[in-house]
Amino acid sequence: MNSVEAEILALKALAFLAHSDEDLDRFVALSGVAPADLRARAEQPEMLAAVLDFVLADDTRVTGFCEEVAIDPRELHAARRALPGGRW
User: Fold this and answer.
1) Is 0.85 surpassed by the pTM of this model?
2) Following DSSP, what letter does each residue of 25-60 receive, concatenated?
3) CB–CB of 80/6 below 8 Å?
4) Is residue 68 part of a domain?
5) By residue range, what is the domain housing residue 46?
């Protein structure tokens, strides 16, 4: 997966989080990003990596997101690897 594809998938993950006030509030609290800053930084690769990290941290979120966008969870992991900090 290339970085553009990964960014698109991460934007979909952000939209997925936005559908759940609880998940979005938790992401904002854990990341320390104010909601207005989140909107302004939504296309920055580092922010998108943080979104994927948040989704990947919870199996229920992974399952729900992958079902919603009809992808295999391995694609989600590949997207994370394609964004900053994803290669260890």
Assistant:
1) yes
2) HHHHHHHT--HHHHHHHTT-HHHHHHHHHHHHT-HH
3) yes
4) yes
5) 3-82
User: For residue 4, what pLDDT is reported?
Assistant: 95
Q: Specify the number of domains making up the chain.
A: 1
Closest CA to 43 of 12, 79, 68, 1: 12
Give the pLDDT confidence of 27-80 residue by residue, as tens digits.
999 998 988 888 889 889 999 999 999 999 999 999 999 999 999 999 999 999
CB 48 within 8 A of CB 83: yes
Write phi, then psi, for 4 (nearest 5 degrees).
-65, -45
How many Å apart are CA 32 and CA 26, to the nearest integer?
Answer: 10
What pLDDT was estimated at residue 12?
96
Non-local CB neighbours of 9 within 8 Å, separated by 6+ positions: 1, 52, 69, 71, 75, 76, 79
